[in-house]
Design a protein that fits this description.
The chain is α+β, with helices and mostly antiparallel strands. It has three helices and ten strands, in the order αβββββαββββαβ.
Length: 171
């Protein structure tokens, strides 16, 4: 009985010190994007840059020298549940782009369970595929958006997977 209590205590200590599947990395500043204000850090694929100067809080992830495709990241502190959050995103995208909602699916991207909302719309003569990948933790929504012009033949599946694998919420 004493051995079981000691083993349980040791397991508890290991978990508290960062074991049990948690990241023990503490130098988030070495990552490609790190923000104490947003409480997140992530890496981007080689050849991509990060621009966090947007006044509305969007973080843009772009391939050097290309306007499309690109990714965006934004953190939302939203008091409602996921259904209300989805409705807000659908309305916002429709109001901004006159988009067509194409559907939603639950997916595993970069080892994280996300909800993906898909939209399509016309912009500057191109058909834009817009996917909102929503990762929720503790009532905070972390949204990575991909914007691709299907006419240009490049999708961001591998790049989004790369970013999501490295994505860390700093607590």
């Amino acid at each position: 009985m004493k051995k079981i209590a000691i083993a349980a205590a040791l397991i508890s200590i290991i978990c508290l010190l960062g074991g049990c599947g948690r990241s023990t990395q503490t130098d988030y500043t070495a990552m490609d994007f790190y923000s104490e204000e947003l409480g997140v850090a992530f890496d981007v694929p080689e050849g991509y840059t990060v621009d966090s100067s947007d006044p509305d809080g969007y973080v843009f992830i772009c391939e050097n020298g290309r306007a499309v495709p690109y990714m965006m990241f934004k953190k939302y502190d939203f008091a409602g549940g996921i259904d209300d959050f989805k409705a807000q995103i659908k309305k916002s995208v429709a109001d901004t782009f006159g988009s067509s909602f194409k559907g939603e699916q639950h997916n595993n991207i970069g080892g994280k369970k996300v909800l993906v909302l898909k939209f399509s719309y016309q912009l500057d003569g191109y058909t834009i595929s817009d996917a909102r990948c929503i990762y929720e933790k503790g009532g905070t929504y972390y949204v990575f958006t991909t914007k691709e012009a299907s006419d240009l033949g490049h999708n961001l599946n591998a790049e989004l997977d790369f970013v999501m694998k490295s994505f860390i919420i700093i607590e």
